[in-house]
Amino acid sequence: MDSQAPARTQLPAFATTTRLFARALGWSPQQLLDTFRPATADDLPALLDFRRRDGWDDAAYLRWRYGLDGREHPYGRLWILRSEVAVLGIIGSERQPVRYDGHLYDGQVLMDVQIDPALADAGAGAWFNQAMFEQGDPTLAVGANDHSVGLVRRLFQPLPNRSYYMLPLEAAALLRQRGTPAAVAALAGPLFNAGWWLRERMRYGRGEGGLQITEVASVDPRWLQDLYDALPARIACVTPSAGHLEWRLFRNPRAGYRLFVATRDGRCTGYLAARHVPAAEGQPAALHIIDWKTMADDATLPALMRAAIAQARHHGCSKVFTTTLDAPAGATLARLGFLCRQAPMLVAGVHSSLPLPGHGAPGQWRITDLSFDNDGSY
């Protein structure tokens, strides 16, 4: 994942896209720029009506994510383009402090893009993204759907795609999903499960090398700072503050997460956050790992992952899953038995003037689902 990235098609300057989009609206360029603004609590009724067009019913989410309950917070902001009669489009962002090579950059990730379908051919998608580039450097694009993946590839310097990792805990269900006859799956599943358990006992049965794994209900800035100071210098990593991380994991109205911290000799060597996804609509229960950070050692991440797997088994989950852009972690997950799947929609990109990996500097990125806005909604 080094510095050489594929060349992109040259994009028009922001002034050009502003002029073209303003013309499509019947506005002047300055009117367009002046109308685009952060949303406030007064916009909430109109925003909810606008979001319902795409099937969202998420008043609590909007209030939490973007401070639209009147109690503003510094972590997320929703920008709105609204005429006198209707909402024309929205785009959200969350702060993404990025540490790399001894520097801390005040970045952002874009999310919750929604545009009036009448403006689909007016260049609105490109304009909304470009309008946000002034709000944070670097700007990340993480994850996409078939409507936006093209924009990500055009507007952002491409990074390698994130990968989906899944550890089946109930092998019979996985075999049935892959077309194995039910009777064969019922016989083979327990054998696979027992084989995985025996493999883990033989590999790691003698302990965790002095590591202690503890579940915590809050984030202590002291252990978090110790961990951040020990992160590998040449990995660009999203490192939210203690308050930011607590807001993201513990106050989310869509999903609550559990946080596990690894320590050795009283010093934090890593953490992992995960949530139990209940069975619903024919899908069995699962455990979703949203984020982890670890020092550059060989023991912490496997220990944290095994703690998460134990929780998944306790809750009767059929699988543990996550996505990540992190090559060393991917190798660890594979050794733990996770299956890796590449998916074309799991794109990642960066827009920046800074010397970061993928944008003129050596090194790698560590991006987890903490930078993706699923939050229990899918």
- Report the radius of gyration as a whole number of Å: 22 Å
- β-strand percent reads 25-35%
CATH top level class name of the largest domain: Alpha Beta
Enter the CATH topology name of the largest domain: Aminopeptidase
Largest sheet: number of strands, sense, barrel closure: 16 strands, mixed
Count up the helices: 12
Number of spatially distinct domains = 2
Low-pLDDT windows of residues:
1-7
Helix content: 25-40%
Looking at how many chains there are and whether they match, the oligomeric state comes to single chain
Spatial shape: globular
* Terminal residue distance: 29 Å
β-strand number = 16
Order of SSEs, N→C?
HHEHHEEEHEHEEHHEHEHEEEHEHEEE
Summary of the model, kept short:
The chain is an alpha+beta fold. It is built from 12 helices and 16 strands.
Structure description:
- The chain is built from twelve helices and 16 strands.
- It is of the alpha+beta class and 378 residues long.
- It has two domains: 14-159, Gcn5-related N-acetyltransferase (GNAT) (Aminopeptidase), CATH 3.40.630.30; 163-342, Gcn5-related N-acetyltransferase (GNAT) (Aminopeptidase), CATH 3.40.630.
- The chain has a 16-stranded mixed sheet that branches.
- Helix 1 (14-25) crosses helix 2 (29-35), helix 1 (14-25) packs across helix 5 (124-132) and helix 7 crosses helix 8.
- The model is unreliable at 1-7 (pLDDT under 50).
